[in-house]
Design goal:
AraC family transcriptional regulator; elongated; Arc Repressor Mutant, subunit A; seven-stranded antiparallel β-sheet
Length: 318
């Protein structure tokens, strides 16, 4: 861990304020109320891992709260996963009350008010992920935030094991390795979310199918934009590229290939019309998003077995 913050050497009268600032630095701004009358003790180790922040916390009983005032004054768009490694916790968010025991996961959203109550000395491991990195639909995230998940439930066991090992001692590694580890955490979390939303049966499947149809329609409406890529498609639908690719795993085609296929189809249709000789091949290619004429000719021949000019002469579109 890169940073260790502890109340050990802080005067008793200043411990609570110090601890509140420590948690706000490592996690997000919040209030802290201690339980009990004796001196308070707390320790937090925190470090960055790619686009994640991972923290290990050990402390005396307390209640932490993120209020609307905190959200207004210090917006923080994160999804947080906590692994309860000792003691118990109660998470309250969106009207849900979720109790977590040792080994359980809690998931919450820092853009909405929440509280975490620890009634006894505890330790927890928290991973904070930017929402843009998670890239899951809001309706899916809402099904898991404000909840506790038992480590005995399906995919959660693997995620708990991985997060506990990772947050106990963040490895010293290169930025590229750290980025891959962070992506691995996000992938594991996304898989857990999908596992739990699939439990909704046809409702979840229908939502995914609807999203795929929206994405296909978006691609068709923007074929002429040479900047149309999986990255821009994902951004337009507020999901990650990783999640976009996962959506299309059952479609039998990648998003990049679909964009090229639809562009080629429209070019072939236009070049095969009776009045096609009045248009230049490069103008048609550019109209449908191909910025490089030589590249267009290569991929057209690969798809249709003829060059664009041969296609025009043959009037071949069917």
């Amino acid at each position: 861990m890169n940073l260790v913050l502890t109340t050990a050497s802080v005067p008793d009268g200043e411990k609570l304020a110090y601890w509140r600032d420590a948690l706000s630095t490592a996690l997000v701004p919040m209030t802290v109320a201690t339980r009990g009358d004796g001196p308070f003790s707390g320790r937090i180790s925190t470090a960055r891992l790619g686009h994640l922040r991972v923290s290990a916390i050990e402390a005396d009983p307390q209640r932490t709260s993120r209020t609307p005032r905190h959200i207004a004054q210090a917006p923080a768009d994160y999804i947080a996963i906590g692994v309860q490694t000792a003691g118990t916790a109660t998470l309250v968010q969106d009207g849900r009350h979720a109790g977590a025991s040792e080994g359980d996961l809690v998931v919450y959203d820092t853009t909405r008010p929440y509280s975490l109550d620890y009634p006894e000395p505890f330790s927890t491991r928290i991973v904070r992920m930017p929402r843009r990195a998670v890239g899951l639909p809001e309706e899916d995230l809402r099904r898991v935030t404000g909840t506790a998940i038992s480590a005995t439930e399906g995919f959660a066991a693997l995620l708990v094991s991985f997060l506990t090992a990772l947050t106990t001692s963040v490895p010293a590694c290169s930025p590229s390795v750290a980025a891959r580890l962070a992506d691995g955490v996000v992938d594991l979390f996304a898989t857990l979310v999908e596992e739990r939303t699939r439990g909704r049966g046809e409702q979840a499947a229908g939502a995914h199918k609807h999203l795929v149809l929206r994405i296909r329609d978006h691609i068709d409406r923007n074929l002429g934009d040479p900047a149309l890529t999986p990255q821009t498609v994902a951004a337009a639908h507020h999901i990650s590229v990783r999640y976009l690719h996962r959506l299309f795993e059952g479609e039998g085609i990648t998003v990049a290939r679909l964009i090229q296929q639809r562009r080629l189809h429209e070019c072939a249709r236009e070049l095969g019309r009776p009045d096609a000789p009045t248009r230049t091949v490069s103008a048609v290619a550019q109209r449908w998003g191909f910025a490089n004429p030589a590249h267009f000719s290569r991929v057209f021949r690969a798809a249709y077995g003829r060059s664009p000019r041969e296609w025009v002469r043959a009037g071949s579109f069917t």
